[in-house]
Specification:
The protein contains 14 helices and 24 strands. It has 439 residues and is α/β, with parallel strands linked by helices. It has three domains: 234 residues, 3-Layer(bba) Sandwich (FAD/NAD(P)-binding domain); 93 residues, D-Amino Acid Oxidase, Chain A, domain 2 (2-Layer Sandwich); 47 residues, no CATH class. The strands form five sheets. Strands 5, 6, 14, 15, 16, 17, 18 and 19 form an eight-stranded mixed sheet that branches. Strands 8-3-2-12-22-21-24 form a seven-stranded mixed sheet. A four-stranded mixed sheet has the order 1-11-10-9. It starts with 7 loop residues before the first strand and ends with a helix. Bound molecules: flavin-adenine dinucleotide (FAD).
Length: 439
């Protein structure tokens, strides 16, 4: 198919219409900037990542989404509960024991097809232009600077668009990170997830209807049980690949049902329900980009970093990074300076949040670790653990990490997330250029 000759220009191009992209877009469009979102799929489209945590509230409030969430059918989530393999259940931990009941303490279990559609429409209402079924195929380069993208629309027509800044919000595709060799794995967090949906399985009542349950399986794996509206429940298992595929079993349906048989609580919950019959599997999803930005480019949400989903932090981090990048790009556009250095604070903030959450994820998977034991020795540690798990991830947790290290080792921070300055980074900037051109 031919490429259209005339390229259009915008203030910002956003690749990907998930939560990170639409959050940035809403902010930039509201400031009056000309924003283009290019999204590969036609919305509403399926996506995993359905349980929100309390500190999604602030970015959702910033972009005017709270009234829409309150008016939605999404199940309200007030708590998280932990269940042992033999069925013993902790008390639900209610967020309103620590946060304001009317705001942060109530969050939602969403159907991502609907949530992402509302987010995309919200960005549109604020003035962002959205082109769905449009896949970005490469970045356009001038020297070492990204100056726009080439994309292909539904009819196969290729076109170019230009902007002083491009936001990579491509989620697990990690479009620019993959193409530039910046994608780093997290060696210990190489889990596999298998999941499906049930209709009319058992759930709590009243404020417990939207409780997220994390049900442990042997060998430090866990089930999630997330009640959604329309009588559906999202249920999945996360564990080491070698544990889930023991005996040479590879079929997700067989893996799922074998594990359900071993977990009394999940088995009982699902006993009244009916499986939708569709099973999903994914592996090795934890990853980090070496850089948060490069000339003309900034990475947002999962495209920057993604952690194991045990504490449901993904959408919170996507929204938070979307908000920070939206504000930083606005300031850069106003100042006429979008150099990578302008994203240094953004990169440092998100990396600090990711590293805090990552420490708790590592601790969770350590067979010798128990939240209960830490809190028994240090009763005031409970509040700090709660803050981190609720998404208040940019506090100083030094004391908490020192206390937890008395029980289990915690990982050092990864040396990632600074912007890539073309001049300061030797030959690496030209590597962007080469990869972008061929990409
Ligand atoms: C098993 C599992 C369970 C999870 N559970 C939770 C949970 O309970 N709670 C939670 O908060 N998070 C959870 N997550 C994480 C959550 O799914 C992500 O963190 C979140 O969706 C990230 O948002 P994003 O906007 O960065 O990317 P995405 O939501 O992935 O959006 C990226 C968008 O970019 C588009 N795109 C990609 N490439 C291109 C291209 N070349 N051109 C145009 N468009 C493109 C895609 O179509 C997509 O719409 C889970 C993840 C996994 C794997």
């Amino acid at each position: 198919m031919p490429t259209q000759n005339k390229s259009q220009s915008y203030d910002a191009i956003i690749i990907g219409g998930g939560p990170s992209g639409t959050c940035s877009a809403a902010i930039l469009a509201e400031y009056g900037h000309r924003v283009l979102i290019l999204e590969r799929e036609k919305f509403p489209r399926y996506h995993i990542g359905e349980s929100l945590i309390p500190f999604t509230f602030q970015p959702l409030q910033r972009i005017g989404m709270i009234p829409k969430m309150k008016g939605s059918a999404f199940v309200k989530k007030y708590s998280v509960t932990f269940v042992q393999p033999d069925g013993r259940r902790s008390q639900p931990f209610y967020f309103f024991n620590r946060y304001d009941r009317e705001t942060v303490a109530q969050t939602w279990q969403v159907l991502r097809s609907e949530f992402d559609q509302i987010m995309l429409d919200n960005a549109r209402e604020k003035g962002a232009e959205v082109r769905e079924e449009t896949t970005v195929t490469r970045t356009l380069m001038e020297g070492d600077r990204v100056v726009g993208v080439e994309a292909k629309d539904k009819s196969g027509q290729t076109f170019e668009v230009r902007a002083p800044i491009t936001l990579d919000c491509t989620g697990k595709e990690a479009f620019t990170s993959n193409r530039n060799g910046w994608r780093m794995s997290d060696p210990y967090l190489n889990k596999v997830a298998v999941w499906t949906y049930y209709k009319d399985s058992k759930r709590g009542v009243g404020i417990d209807e939207g409780d997220t349950t994390v049900a442990y399986v042997p060998d430090k794996g866990w089930f999630w049980h997330i009640p959604q509206h329309n009588r559906m429940t999202s249920v999945g298992i996360v564990a080491e690949g070698k544990y889930l595929s023991r005996g040479g079993v590879k079929d997700p349906k067989t893996i799922f049902h074998r594990e359900v048989e071993e977990n009394q609580w999940i088995k009982d919950r699902l006993s009244t329900g009916e499986s939708t019959g569709e099973y999903f599997i994914t592996s090795e999803y934890s990853r980090h980009s070496k850089y948060c930005a490069a000339p003309g480019l900034v990475l947002v949400g999962d495209a920057l970093a993604f952690l194991d989903p045990v504490f449901s932090s993904g959408v919170m981090l996507a929204l938070k990074s979307g908000q920070l990048v939206g504000e930083a790009v606005h300031e850069g556009l106003v100042a006429g300076d979008l150099s990578p250095a302008r994203f240094a604070n953004y990169g440092a903030t998100i990396r600090a949040g990711v590293e805090n959450m990552r420490k708790l994820v590592y601790a969770f998977y350590d067979p010798k670790f128990s939240f209960r034991e830490v809190i028994a020795r240090y009763p005031d540690a409970g509040g700090e653990i709660t803050d981190c798990l609720s998404g208040d991830v940019n506090k100083d947790f030094t004391q908490l990490w020192n206390r937890i290290r008395e029980f289990v080792p915690l990982p050092d921070d990864l040396p990632y997330g600074a912007p890539l300055e073309s001049s300061a980074d030797g030959g690496k900037a030209s590597a962007i250029s080469a990869a972008g051109k061929s990409g």
